[in-house]
Specification:
binds nickel (II) ion; 226 residues; seven-stranded mixed sheet; Metallo-beta-lactamase, Chain A; binds manganese (II) ion; 20% helix; alpha/beta
Length: 226
């Protein structure tokens, strides 16, 4: 499967023959130079919670591609009112889609949509099919609930965790989170985009290496095979 970093907490992931974009925040990201939102191709847009830095390009991408939004009930309803095709889920629920199974899992954070509409409770996604299984945590603190993931989902091949601190867990807590989810291969996100979340990459990677784990930090626009 291919994983492309679109900056901040935005990823394009190809799995099960479909393209999935997570938490698109591209056009307003000061660090993104060469990604044209209108040229992105996808089948689905998955949104973890309602904050601006996770939804800003979702409507355009969904409409450009006739894609389907997957998010919690409140966020799906909000996008549905804008004329987007949506598929609502909520915490603990899993559903079989044409690319695999997704499960919407707990996150400790907040969630309000850009116009002030209540965004439901924030979450993350575990996605799996015959080829692989991964966890996209969304914005979250370290939480005991992460221990439920290895108990209720297939073994994770990798996980995408926020590591930038201040608004989410920092890399030190993300090392503990990787233990909770029983996963040694982590892709970091939600760092460096704004002054609040600037982070020393080498220090973060050393913390993971010291724990016998790998922290992958992609350049914006970079694609890797997982
Ligand atoms: Ni947030
Ligand atoms: Mn955020």
């Amino acid at each position: 499967m291919k994983v492309t970093y679109l900056g901040h907490a935005s990823f394009l992931i190809e799995t099960g023959g479909k393209k999935l974009i997570f938490d698109p925040f591209i056009s307003a990201n000061p660090l993104v130079k060469d990604i044209d939102v209108d040229k992105l191709k996808t089948d689905y847009v998955l949104v973890s919670h309602g904050h601006q830095d996770h939804v800003v390009d979702a409507e355009a991408i969904i409409k450009n591609n006739e894609a389907t939004l997957i998010s919690n009930y409140e966020i799906a309803t909000w996008f549905g009112q804008k004329g987007c095709t949506v598929y609502p889920v909520n915490h603990g629920g899993k559903v079989k889609m044409d690319f695999g199974t997704i499960k919407y899992v707990n996150a400790i954070h907040s969630s309000v949509l850009p116009d002030g509409t209540y965004g439901g409770n924030p979450g993350g996604f575990v996605v799996w099919n015959d080829q692989n299984c991964f966890y996209f945590a969304g914005d979250t603190a370290l939480t005991w609930d992460m221990k439920l993931i290895p108990m209720t989902c297939p073994t994770l091949d990798f996980a995408i965790l926020p590591i930038g601190d201040n608004f989410t867990m920092g890399y030190e807590d993300a090392v503990i989170a990787s233990d909770f989810i029983a996963c040694d291969k982590i892709i970091g996100c939600h760092y460096d985009t704004f002054p609040y979340i600037e982070m020393e990459k080498e220090t973060a990677q050393k913390a993971f290496a010291d724990a016998g784990k790998e922290l992958i930090l992609l350049a914006i626009g970079e694609t890797i095979e997982m």
